[in-house]
Design brief:
Elements: E1 9-12, E2 15-18, H1 28-43, H2 49-64, H3 67-78, H4 82-107, E3 111-112, E4 125-131, E5 134-138, H5 144-157, E6 161-165, H6 171-184, E7 190-193, H7 197-204, E8 210-214, H8 217-228, E9 234-237, E10 243-247, H9 254-266, E11 278-282, H10 283-300, H11 316-327, E12 332-335, E13 339-340, E14 345-346, E15 349-352, E16 369-375, H12 378-389, E17 394-399, H13 409-417, E18 422-425, E19 446-447, H14 453-458, E20 460-466, H15 473-476, H16 485-494, H17 513-535
Parallel strand pairs: 5-6, 5-8, 6-7, 8-9, 10-11, 10-17, 11-16, 15-16, 17-18
Antiparallel strand pairs: 1-2, 3-4, 4-20, 9-19, 12-15, 13-14
Helix pairs in contact: 2-4, 2-5, 2-6, 3-4, 3-6, 4-5, 9-10, 12-13, 16-17
This protein binds nicotinamide-adenine-dinucleotide.
Nicotinamide-adenine-dinucleotide binds at residues 138-142, 147, 165-169, 196-197, 200, 214-216, 219, 222, 237-239, 273, 364, 366, 393, 441, 446.
């Protein structure tokens, strides 16, 4: 690793210490990126699927063999419980890597194109997915293992060379992961940059073939603007205020419901992009739900200020904002509320009787604070969500009624009117761990998606490949000048093999099977006719 450019003091679980993070020197950044660009063009190592697999295998074991060190680093950085690191980062990550390794050959097979035009009717046409080149991954502090390595593996699976810039807010972990990946990966293919804003700014002065940024929307805007200067495509994985609707709950489901809500909110001290930000609870069940949440919170967090299960807030700025938000709420704190400035600890806090204008409802909370709002009219509540915090990253509904959108009109109404990155009924967070479903936002929660095949697609270019021959010019002659009426007739019939099956008015139906058969026969006849006419 390069020499540090600065030595900072940080406050972590070990008290105030010198930051263990060795910042990459600004001069080394362009050199490091240039090296990856040059090796991309000169070596073509990553064209080989076998080479990609071997690189990803090295990442897998680097993580698996150092699981304890990873847990330890995150505990030092923000008191993260090793159990949370294992269940929310290590488990899903290793699972996704195995899934990717077992799928790359399948994903990288060219996809034949059907429905070909007359120009290539007899010839192979397919879609191949080629590497983009050198990509930059910028990752955040909150799930720094999963969010960094899942993106890096996705980019490697697509055959790219990768520069990784992690968050400076988890110094123990960031240094550890940079070292592990630098040792595990071919240094022609991977380069880790450690640092904060100046280092990221220097990185953004380099030309990449794609940038993936995960973090807050304000910085996302800076990244996207800078990338636009060089027409660099961007994936933005942002956050938002993800609501949880609660309706039609049976008494027997209350304890399970309360546990799932508390887990979805207070895991990682609420510093989860898909955490339930706030609850919207049907008026009739609010009382029993609040009682149950309080009861289960007592079981979860027996003596909160001494619990090693509770993660602390990442830095002073976030901690101060959250404390201010709690202090200025007009709602009623029914559980938690204690704070400790020295260790940036905030007790899991439940606030009842909250209204849309409350301090807790202005922006994404990203902390252990659960505001509870009550509603009686679903339609106007959904309208308020859309008006104030549209396009959240996640959308949750909890109900003892039917759990399916097709049989539960309330679920159908909510999910149809609120656009969100993902939807989960009767649980929280679990969709993020799916190794092969797209994870990403919409609107204000970002654009682009990844995980498994969706990472592979995001980090490759879909190239249409046509293998034309010379022998078939007989069918194609009518496209060449000099034009005449015969050629025009041929062009009209053969160049447009799809025929209309719909009228000018009425509902457009799908073509019938008989129409499709007739259309295929007519197309073949046109090709034959074309070949004959073009010979004359
Ligand atoms: P953070 O402070 O760790 O920052 C994220 C990255 O941005 C870091 O690498 C940091 O160095 C870099 N950065 C910060 N300021 C910068 C600047 N001015 N210019 C260039 N780079 C800069 O994390 P954060 O942004 O506080 O993360 C929390 C936010 O991220 C929340 O809104 C959360 O919802 C969102 N998030 C989204 C996802 C997702 O997958 N959609 C996942 C995690 C977090």
């Amino acid at each position: 690793m390069s020499k540090p450019t600065k030595v900072e003091s940080i406050s972590s679980k070990e008290g105030s210490i010198t930051s263990p993070l060795r910042y990459t020197s600004i001069q080394d950044i362009p050199k490091g990126v240039d090296k990856l660009v040059a090796s991309y063009h000169e070596t073509h190592k990553m064209d080989s699927i076998q080479y990609r697999l071997n690189q990803i295998r090295n990442v897998y074991f680097a993580i698996k063999d150092n699981a304890d060190l990873i847990c330890e680093a995150l505990e030092k950085d923000f008191y993260r419980s090793p159990s949370e690191t294992k269940s929310l980062e290590l488990g899903p990550l290793l699972n996704e890597i195995i899934h990717t390794m077992g799928s790359i050959y399948k994903w990288s097979k060219p996809e034949p194109v059907s429905d070909k035009t007359i120009n290539v009717a007899t010839q192979p046409v397919y879609i191949e997915r080629i590497p983009l080149g050198v990509v930059l991954v910028i990752s955040p502090f909150n799930y720094p293992l999963l969010l960094s390595v899942s993106a890096v593996v996705g980019a490697l699976s697509g055959g790219n060379h990768v520069v990784l810039k992690q968050s400076e807010s988890t110094p123990h972990f960031t240094q550890l992961l940079s070292d592990l990946l630098t040792d595990a990966l071919d240094n022609d293919v991977f380069f880790a940059v450690n640092g904060a804003i100046p280092e990221t700014t220097e990185l953004l002065n380099q030309k990449f073939d794609k940038i993936m940024y995960t973090g807050n929307g304000m910085v996302g805007t800076i990244i996207a603007k800078k990338a636009a200067e060089t027409l660099t495509p961007v994936i933005l994985e942002l956050g938002g205020k993800s609501p949880g609707f609660v309706f039609d709950i049976n008494k027997k489901d209350l304890p399970t419901l309360a546990k799932r809500i508390l887990w979805g909110k207070f895991t990682n001290a609420g510093q989860t992009c898909v955490a339930i930000d706030y609850l919207l609870v049907e008026e009739s069940i609010k009382g029993p739900l609040v009682d149950e949440l309080i009861k289960q919170a007592e079981v979860f967090f027996e003596s909160p200020d001494h619990s090693s299960d509770i993660t602390h807030i990442i830095h002073d700025r976030a901690y101060t904002n959250l404390v201010k938000t709690i202090k200025s709420t007009k709602g009623k704190i029914v559980s938690g509320g204690k704070t400790d400035d020295a260790t940036r600890f905030i007790e899991p806090t439940i606030i009842d009787n909250v209204k849309f204008g409350d301090s807790t409802m202005r922006q994404e909370l990203f902390g252990p604070v659960l505001p509870i709002l009550t509603y009686s009219d679903l339609e106007s509540t959904v309208k308020s969500v859309v008006k104030q915090h549209d396009t959240p990253l996640a959308l949750y509904c909890f109900t003892s009624g039917k759990a399916s959108r097709s049989t539960n009109p309330k679920i159908e109404y909510i999910t149809k009117h609120i656009r969100s990155g993902g939807v989960v009924i009767n649980d929280t967070l679990i969709h993020v761990a799916l190794p092969n479903a797209p994870f990403g936002g919409v609107g204000m929660s970002g654009y682009g998606s990844y995980h498994g095949y969706f990472s592979y697609r995001s980090f490759t270019h879909e190239r249409t490949f046509v293998e034309q021959a010379f022998w078939n010019d007989a069918i194609l002659k009518s496209r060449y000048p000099p034009y005449n009426e015969t050629k025009n007739t041929v062009i009209a019939s053969a160049m447009v093999p799809h025929r209309e099956w719909f009228g000018r008015s009425g509902d457009v139906q799908q073509p019938s099977i008989f129409f499709n058969i007739w259309n295929s026969v007519a197309t073949l006849t046109s090709i034959g006719y074309t070949a004959v006419v073009n010979r004359i």
